[in-house]
Protein 1
Amino acid sequence: MAITFHEQSREFHLTNGKISYIMEIMANGQMEHLYFGRAITDRESFHHLHEEEPRSLMAVNVPEPGTLSLEFARQEYPSYGTGDYRSPAVTVQQENGSRISAFTYVSHEIFPGKKSIAPLPSTYVEQDEEAETLEITLHDPLTDTDLVLSYTIYRDYPVVTRHARFFHMGKERIILDRALSASVEFSDMNFEMVQLSGAWSRERYVKNRKLEMGIQAIQSLRGASSSEQNPFLALKRPEATEQQGEVYGFSLVYSGSFLAQVEVNTHEMTRVMMGIQPETFSWELQAGESFQTPEVVMVYSGRGLNGMSQTFHRLYRTRLMRGEWRDKVRPILLNNWEATYFDFTEEKILAIAGKAKEAGAELFVLDDGWFGARNDDYRGLGDWYVNLEKLPDGIRGLSEKVEKLGLKFGLWVELEMVNKDSDLYRAHPDWVIGVPGRFESHSRHQHVLDYSRKEVVDAIYEMISREIRDARISYIKWDMNRYITEPFSRGGSPADQGKMMHRYILGVYDLYTRLTTEFPHILFESCASGGARFDPGMLAFAPQTWTSDDTDGAERVKIQYGTSMVYPLVSMGSHVSAVPNHQLYRKTPLDTRANVAYFGTFGYELDLNLLSDEEFEQVKDQIAFMKKYRNLIQLDGDFYRLQSPFEGNDAAWMVVSQDKSTALALFFQRLNKVNASWLRLRLTGLKEHARYRVCCSLDGAQKDNAQLDRVYGTCGLPRQRVLEAYGDELMYAGIVISRDDLNRKGGDFASLLYTIEEIKSGEA
Ligand code: DGJ
């Protein structure tokens, strides 16, 4: 791994043998991007990759007779107003109203390792040898402001991370109207843009579009990364698939409003930009003040979308997540939300927890409704003390009783919110975000606390940390159930208003930092009406996220498939819930509900007391199965998407152990078909010449489908499909899938789960 500066050509080459990222200092002193992609051999100069020609109408950025025009230069961090008419990465406003800036090279530093950018979350290294960092200092003389562009290349990953920092030294104040994290340019537009778009209960659906001239962007203006758009985009070559071809992934380590944009000019140059949403951002800097942007993680893959995702998965699991839970399999939990909603007593809770223990679960989570006057969602948020009418022995008493049952105890909180009907609001009406004199929009009857103010974060910290200290809490589900409207801080000056949205999220990170530092053993799961804040920023604090409020197994296939584009399986909260499903009223087979939930953290979201004996036995088997395979799924394995639920009736994915000796594959069909075509499942990631035993249990099916048993007779088909085959056959010829098996599994929304174990020599 090396970052080289070629003195003569004034070029930088970041490479680790997998990728190259090359830049030069242009004739006008600004930074130009020359190449990002598969590693190429280093040489003294790549200047020939700089393209420059005189063109009519272009603005020239160097003295006569030069022809350098920023309109046609691929820049590293473009600014507004000096001849480049595309969207800039930065706009600096001076006191006189000028919005022009030109940052030129001053110096650079190359050092081993990677610096933290706390309080912002970012990827990190454990040993300096894992990465090398380049910091390029640029200067704008008129405003007397330094801009430092940081680049880190990881030794073991095809990854470059970037962020920018501003240091203002001039006497005049300046305003950063726009300060994105990174800008990267490509010399052609032969790409498709992949994005993860959705809404509540259908988060992160995969969308593809061919790049067109002009701007194509996704964004959030909501104060949270949002379920509508995820802070991620990829550019893939049109011929790239899940398994092969070139893909570039860009992921922003940030949980607030963002912009991710691709602009193609009419000369077919493609500019990708990402960072804090400029629309709600305006950051004043006085002399001596600085500002740093969040981090963008850029991945190159020559192995298709799966190659990109596997890099994100490994990096985020091991070098973004942190804390005691990073390398641990996750407890199998039961959450009472869909079992009781607000309607519970201690007795009811203990009955549910007791049955969960009997089934083999390890953690019971008490969801919303345990505090203040919270008997519905109109009241109580903000009053973080237990409701003794529901829980006479408090959270402490309940947590002790749950622990006596042999389970760990977890608790739900929603610390950023307040209901107007609460003691907290009555005492501090000015702590709510909103513009005095204007209507305050409500959402789920609640309002957002102004976390841009330290006193608000302090007060919430005091209340909740007391409750946590007092009880026996092993897990916290940190929820957030509405977006920000009327963004205005009642505690702020006019200049503070442009900082409010970013400071809000810094306040959230601050509270997370305090709680995770004080209670390092607690497993945090972030949540935002399901997956409205499923982003890398959150994962740096909470190593798992509730993926979606949609708990239907069939819908989860799509949601988890899309989420896996960036996020590792261990980060996806995934539960089995009751039928008819509470969001869709669908009756997805229990077997499928579990088969899909296995590919995540796994748990239950229902009252197991209400299951039949047969179903309860099935649940016990499921929990035992997950205990056996969770290390593979959550920590060890590489995940491969095989067939997209967005492109057809069927979907498939698999996870393969590092040593390729064990794998699990899921095949799912949405609607059943009669007298239909043959089905094949081609696996991947196995050893070509190893022999494997492939098993697919049909147990759940027979119990689920007595009707069909009458047709076929219970002995008509085996209870388990077993196949022995070499890896190459499984990958290239594939497994024949029997439609009878799918019928027996319930037909619509049926799934087949295959365990694949290498047969070691000497074994029968
Ligand atoms: C939204 C979450 O996503 C649900 O799981 C549940 O915790 C509710 N909030 C509680 O209000």
Note: Residues 22 and 369 are 55 Å apart (CA to CA).
Protein 2
Amino acid sequence: MKEQVIINEVGLRDGLQNQPITVDTDTKARMAQALVDAGVRYLEPVSFVSPKAVPQMADAAALTTRLPDAADVHYTALVPNLKGYQLARQAGYPTVALVLSTTDTFNQRNLNMSLEQAAQSCEAILAAARADGVATRTYISGAFACPYDGPVPVSLPQGLAARMFEAGSDAVAIADTIGGGNPLQMKHIMTPLIRDFGAERFYVHLHDTRGLAAAMAWQAADLGVRRFDASVGGLGGCPFAPGATGNMATEDLVYLLESCGLDTGIDIQRLREVVAIARQATDRPLGGRILSWIESQETRGTTVCL
Ligand code: COA
Ligand code: ZN
């Protein structure tokens, strides 16, 4: 039997938060259903953030009531502070994602907090979540490069990840928020972390700004990481991380991992339906490399075997 990999779909959150137009709740709900139909079992559909800061996420509570209700589908809500945590809890999320960036500037722009304030805020959320029985995943954002301050030494994400585990985080997501990292950096960051905490406690979150996301994903997989974020059609970016393009496209990640013998449980052909909805809703050319290839083969009348 093939080894299983978890792909956590973040297109509805990380993807849609950065679109110039706000996609309506109906369309988001259709995308969520189509994702589940394609085999996606882990989704981060919303964040409970200030609607002034991110109007695209203002319908978080409303969308939550419209998500496919299946026992084997796991939902996470991103929370930037205790207020967001309380809103996510009210909405019934069993898992929350916290955010801690590696520099003062990035935390300030994203959360209006210094690095130390943001770390302490995460510690407070983690304590509350532990008491409430809510599972946690803490993002170390800008783990490879900061959009404002440039390159980040590997000791920074490593130290923050260790601090978050110590504070009770169940998992840590190492995030290349602006797509400024490389595979060697991935190896240097992850090797000691995996040794100290175990590969199963990590997620890797990649943006494909400079085309290295696939190489970095494989580097992480080769080190034993089996949990990845991705965004259907490569939707994404971050309004607080200038220069960042979309996440690694879910369909490209599925293709990469499946072609290397791992089982994602996701059907690329069915993901095309989600990309089609997203293309129409955002009025943008979307789709990872593998979709362009499939489309080119179909244009030539060639049968596509994946
Ligand atoms: N959800 C909804 N509203 C929130 C909120 C939350 N999680 N946290 C604060 N607010 C509201 C407050 O109630 C207050 O409302 P009011 O003006 O009507 O009284 C207002 O926002 C300001 O509250 P304050 O605590 O001073 O927040 P802030 O202005 O310092 O902003 C954040 C801090 C974290 C709320 C804001 O920076 C934010 O939402 N950032 C998220 C950025 C993001 O989504 N990044 C991408 C994902 S990592
Ligand atoms: Zn991201």
Note: Residues 3-299 form a domain with the TIM Barrel fold (CATH 3.20.20.70).
